[in-house]
TrEMBL record:
UniProtKB keywords: ATP-binding, Hydrolase, Nucleotide-binding
TM spans (from-to): none
Coiled coil start-end: none
Annotated source species: Agrobacterium bohemicum
InterPro entries: CT_A_B, CT_C_D, Cyclophilin-like_dom_sf, PxpC
Cytoplasm as UniProt keyword: no
Domain Carboxyltransferase: 1-191, 251-535
Name of the protein in its database record: Allophanate hydrolase
Length: 539
């Protein structure tokens, strides 16, 4: 058992195999350790996010090291049967890789009983184990940019079904009409950890399987022009609702998401006196404009941009980080940011927005959350009267907002897979400036440098949990810095992670800025020190 650093609040426990991983996961579920916030199981690792004020990393490792990993997890009574059209693009390649005929590949796949080991990558994506070892095949050399939803595929010892259109490198055997992920279903993911799964050839069997019935749809926010509202006049980039994140859904493959600049998000709510975590609109770049149909008090925090308020009688430039009073008919327009990327729009009393899976956060990768706010949208206001506090007039940005062309220094914690890289590779990461490319998004900042980060070899990494701030190095050697909408698990090694105190800054770095990574210390495994004092111990 190895304990590897992921960030200042997350560790990765590396185990011998999947059985040990599931045994440790079950042990921590049955007998939790105080201070653990979330666990993400994977092929042979368990990623654990914890609260350092409750327990230190070494103390956490010491307690985990005492757990019994010999227990075998009994399979669930739940069996899911999945119909498949075996017409996949890679079926012939899989046959060639395995030395089997296409018919034998299909037969072995349908005769196997799989178990859902864990969920990750995307909502509803279950990693299935227990198939015929003859079907263990590597990922494709060149991943596809788009794999259709419902694709049934193989990679390594796993089988799986893509729940939505997404990029991927697994070998496609066929497709299923079943929906792996349906937000109106309870639970939304058809496959849950522990479920048993069998595939059948629907073209030969002459039958199909009905998906579980969906629950009654959660009430959606219906625009009401007779109520207090903002009408969106322009949204070159769709605005999205955000709060502080959607937690507790990792079992379905859903990550937390949430505001990229939490300091600005919180400031926007304080400006108008809203309770903590009241949903705001996250605006990316400039050009957003809306007309208020009512009196309202708004707040804006984050990226530095000109905010203009106009009506038939007046026009003035409003001040960010201070309350802005609106009258019916006022039009508010946001200019292009001179620094930063994103600002947060709050309104006193809050927006009328229905939560999805307990949160108003919009996950752009998983496509989970409220509908995007676009040109023509009508956004209703709650006008909540209770729970409000006084407006704040002394808010300021938490840091200097970066500009295009500037160098932004980000503190980095090495791990968990730093030892997969050469000394030259580690030096390249920290000594070279990395340019932010236009391919960046809320999922991650894609970087470009003259010299790629060098790995020790090209071995495949079994999928494992990833954290916000992780610096993943794909085969190209050009880093990807994961932001809030990153996939829950990934198969490329992570060389380090941006420290939590710089994540808000990372969320504001514009395209064509440059990043300098500054390590906070050398890479080192976390010792399971038994005499480390726990937060509950007496002095």
């Amino acid at each position: 058992m190895r304990f590897l650093p992921v960030s200042l609040t997350t560790i990765l426990v590396e185990l011998a195999d999947l059985d040990q991983t599931l045994a440790l996961f079950a042990s921590l579920e049955a007998d939790p350790i105080e201070g653990i916030e979330e666990t993400v199981p994977a092929a042979r690792t368990l990623m654990i996010r914890f609260r350092p004020e409750k327990i230190e990393a070494q103390a956490l490792a010491a307690r985990i090291a005492t757990r019994d990993l010999s227990a075998k997890i009994a399979p669930s009574d739940k069996l899911v049967e999945i119909p498949v059209h075996y017409d996949g693009e890679d079926l012939a390649d899989v046959a060639e890789l395995t030395g089997l005929s296409v018919e034998d590949v299909i037969r072995r796949h349908t005769e196997s009983e799989f178990t859902v080991a864990f969920c990750g990558f995307a909502p509803g994506f279950g990693y299935l184990v227990g198939g015929d070892p003859a079907l263990h095949v590597p990922r494709r050399q060149s991943p596809r940019t788009r794999i259709p939803a419902g694709s049934v595929a193989l990679a390594g010892a796993f089988s799986g079904v893509y729940p939505q259109n997404s990029p991927g490198g697994w070998q496609i055997l066929g497709t299923t009409p079943l929906k792996m992920w349906d937000i109106e279903r309870d639970p939304g993911a058809l496959l849950q950890p522990g479920y048993r799964v069998r595939f059948f050839d629907m073209d030969k069997a002459g039958r199909s399987t009905e998906a579980p019935a969906t629950r009654s749809a959660a009430p959606k926010t219906v625009p009401d022009r007779d109520a207090a509202h903002f009408e969106v006049l322009a949204a070159p980039v769709p605005a999205i609702f955000q709060d502080l994140g959607r937690f507790g859904q990792t079992g379905q493959g859903v990550s937390a998401s949430g505001a990229l600049d939490r300091s600005a998000f919180n400031a926007a709510n304080r400006i108008v006196g809203n309770p903590v975590n009241t949903p705001c609109l996250e605006l990316t770049l400039g050009g957003f404009s809306f007309k208020s149909a009512t009196r309202a008090v708004i707040g804006v925090a984050g990226a530095s941009c000109v905010i203009t308020v106009t009506s038939a009688a007046y026009s003035f430039e409003a001040t960010p980080y201070a309350p802005i009073s609106l009258e019916p008919g006022d039009v508010v327009t946001f200019g292009n940011p001179t620094s930063g990327m994103r600002c947060y729009l709050s309104v006193r009393g809050g927006f009328e927005v229905a939560p999805v899976l307990g949160s108003a956060a919009t996950d752009t990768l998983a496509v989970v959350g409220p509908e995007n706010v676009v040109t023509g949208s009508v956004v209703n206001l709650r006008n909540q009267k209770t729970g409000l506090s006084s407006v704040s007039i002394d808010e300021v940005p938490a840091f200097d907002l970066p500009k295009a062309g500037e160098v932004v220094t980000l503190d980095v914690i090495y791990g968990p897979r730093t030892d997969w890289f050469t000394q030259n590779g580690m030096k390249t990461l920290t000594s070279q400036l990395w340019q932010v490319t236009p391919q960046s998004s809320r999922v991650g900042i894609r970087l470009a440098g003259e010299v790629p980060v060098e790995r020790k070899d090209s071995a495949e990494l079994p999928s494992e949990g990833t954290a916000t701030g992780a610096i993943q190095i794909p085969h190209s050697g050009q880093p990807v810095l994961f932001l809030a909408d990153h996939p829950l698990t990934g198969g490329y090694p992570v060389i380090g992670a941006v420290a939590e105190h710089h994540l808000d800054l990372a969320g504001q770095i514009p395209i064509n800025a440059k990043i300098q990574f500054r390590p906070l210390g050398p890479f080192a495994e976390i010792p399971a020190t038994e005499n480390t004092k726990f937060s509950g111990d007496k002095p």
